[in-house]
Design brief:
Number of helices of chain A: 16
Helix content of chain B: 40-55%
Oligomer: heterodimer
Helix content of chain A: 25-40%
Shape of chain B: globular
Shape of chain A: globular
Strand order of the largest sheet of chain B: 2-3-4
Order of helices and strands of chain B: EEEEHHHE
Largest sheet of chain A: 11 strands, mixed
Number of strands of chain B: 5
Distance between the termini of chain B: 5 Å
Radius of gyration of chain A: 23 Å
Structural class of chain B: alpha+beta
Number of helices of chain B: 3
Largest sheet of chain B: 3 strands, antiparallel
Strand content of chain A: 15-25%
Structural class of chain A: alpha/beta
Number of strands of chain A: 14
Chain lengths: ~475, ~80
């Protein structure tokens, strides 16, 4: 008999209404089941400690849901990867951009600072096997500062060769780069993320050159060139109120036009510049339905659809780099916890900067600040009753669930809840069932708005809602 | 200058390995010089940029890096790894 101390706590098993059925989900061990009302009531009885009079099959189900997790919980690790931001400036003028361009500081990172950081990290490799040094280039547009990127890549590879680490490089780029960069990216990057917002006219409305001209054709040509290299290629699409109903068509277009591995859909953030351009975030129900419907189509092309906070990768404390021990080096040589500009944190009374890299002494980290940032993950009152709490883990800790945020789900929560439930249903019943769920607004609304998913609160919740 | 058409190369963890087309010659270029080869192979070479890169990779001053670049290129040219444009 297993020690009860190692079992999943009853409060960590959830029951979510899905049409006429109930989805039972234990995020700690990723066990799920689709059951009827009588079964969920019986399982809830077990969760509340009264297993004696329930049928054996129900006890077995409860046993599986509360089984010790075979999947290790991913606590914040000391160091998962380095993010190097060579510049915040960009060669494009996307209408919704909230990263400060074109007014962004023109500062380019001194590559020697990145090298000092790499030297320091490589000297104390992580204890994980295989020992890797993971570096992600982000911007602005990192390839605007291509010499910095190249220098850092070669220095890191040299440090890895010396210390026996395996290097791994990723770059997030707008794709509007000189084609001469393609051989470098193909030879030295392991993963490339390129932003593409749909077919030509939709993309060109959102993502423009400095002179207002379109960027689709140049980016598409670079994607095709990169497809010939062994790099993992991801396309990232920002979905707006204008494009939300075209998500399946976008996936179809990309899959027929390009060879790539992952398609990442993201909801537009409600920025001032987006509003000025007449864009608003997509309706969460239509967005979630779009993700679920696009998955089947993309899978037939061996393309995996990604929605970061809704990935069923196992229990985790964060679905973004914050709190994951990521060191981000910005162009000014400061070490920060987040891709967002510092101003977005300070407007919430928070400080993302926890150190800097000194050209002589190397990285200087204020552990107290790092601990304060990690503590952001601990207190999420809004998430306490949500079945996604250990997979989404609060989403963006600054924009979605900052300290003091309301207890009500926001639109991002709604989309995440529907996508997560739909994916669980797909795993249980197949893609047809998941697609059917995505066609039922009332079923999606039932998932999105259920105020308390905890199985231990099920009886109370059902009574309260008169279900 | 550019890689000789008689030479193919592949990137590996510790640097770059060159092979002659007929397979008779195999030559490893470890770091830091593998960084210099990458600039030439990827068509992004300029004397100033190469010296700057080597200065960072070798942790030496600019003049020493320039000398290193010059000598390395001369050696690669002589070995037939590089050809003029």
């Amino acid at each position: 008999m297993r020690d009860s101390a190692f079992r999943v706590a009853p409060e960590d098993v959830y029951a979510v209404p899905m049409g006429g059925q109930w989805l039972l989900f234990s995020p700690r061990n990723l066990t799920s089941a689709l059951v009827n009302r009588a079964a969920v009531e019986a399982v809830a009885t077990c969760a509340n400690g009264n297993a004696a009079n329930v049928p054996e099959t129900v006890r077995d189900l409860w046993q599986q849901l509360s089984e010790t997790s075979a999947i290790p919980f991913r606590p914040p690790s000391p160091l998962e990867k380095l993010v190097i931001i060579p510049t915040r400036s960009c060669n494009m003028r996307c209408v919704y951009c909230d990263f400060g361009t074109p007014g962004a500081h023109a500062t380019t990172l001194d590559p020697q600072l990145a090298c000092r950081l790499i030297e320091n990290v490589a000297a104390k490799p992580p204890s994980t096997a295989p020992a890797m040094l993971r570096i992600h280039f982000f911007g602005g547009e990192p390839l605007v500062a291509r010499p910095c990127v190249e220098t850092v890549v070669h220095y890191a590879r040299m440090a890895c060769a010396r210390t026996g680490l395996t290097p791994w490089f990723e770059i997030t780029t707008n794709g509007l780069f000189d084609p001469t960069a393609v051989p470098f990216i193909g030879d030295y990057m392991d993963s490339v993320v390129i932003s593409l917002d749909g077919a030509e006219s939709a993309h060109d409305f959102n993502r423009r050159r400095a002179d207002g001209g379109g960027t689709y054709s140049a980016i598409a040509a670079n994607i095709r060139r990169l497809s010939r290299s062994p790099v993992e290629l991801s396309l990232r699409t920002c979905v707006t109120s204008r494009s939300v109903d075209a998500m399946t068509a976008i996936a179809s277009h990309f899959c027929s036009e390009f060879e790539f591995d992952l398609l990442c859909f993201e909801m537009l953030a409600p920025t001032e510049s987006a509003r000025d351009a007449g864009l608003s975030p997509p309706d969460p129900y239509r967005f979630a339905a779009g993700v679920l419907k696009a998955e089947t189509l993309a899978a037939s092309h061996d393309v995996h659809i990604i929605h970061g906070p809704s990935e069923l990768t196992g229990p985790r404390a964060t679905s973004c780099p914050v709190g994951r021990g990521t060191l981000m080096l910005n162009p000014e040589g400061m070490l920060t916890a987040c891709y967002l500009e510092a101003e977005r944190w300070t407007s919430r009374g928070l400080d993302p900067v926890f150190g800097r890299v000194d050209p002589v002494s190397g990285p200087m980290i204020e552990q107290q600040k790092l601990d304060a940032i990690a503590s952001l993950l601990d207190s999420k009152p809004r998430c306490a009753r949500c079945f996604c709490r250990h997979t989404c883990a609060g989403g963006c800790h600054i924009e979605q669930t900052p300290p003091g945020c309301s207890l009500e789900y926001d639109d991002r929560c709604r989309a995440i809840r529907i996508i997560t439930a739909g994916r669980l249903m797909r795993n249980l019943e197949g893609t047809t069932a998941a697609e059917a769920f995505a066609e039922q607004p009332s079923a999606m609304r039932g998932v999105a708005e259920n105020p308390d998913d905890r199985l231990t609160a099920w009886t109370l919740g059902v009574k309260r809602r008169g279900l | 200058m550019k890689p000789s058409c008689q030479v193919s190369w592949f990137v590996e963890t510790r640097g770059v390995t060159l092979c002659s087309r007929d397979g008779s010659v195999r030559h490893s270029i470890p770091y830091p010089h593998a960084g210099l080869w990458a600039l030439i192979a990827n068509g992004h070479y300029s004397t100033a940029y190469a010296s700057e890169l080597m200065s960072v990779l070798m942790s030496v001053g600019r003049q020493e890096a320039e000398r290193e670049v010059e000598e390395t290129l001369a050696a690669w040219m002589q070995a037939g790894f590089l050809s003029e444009e």
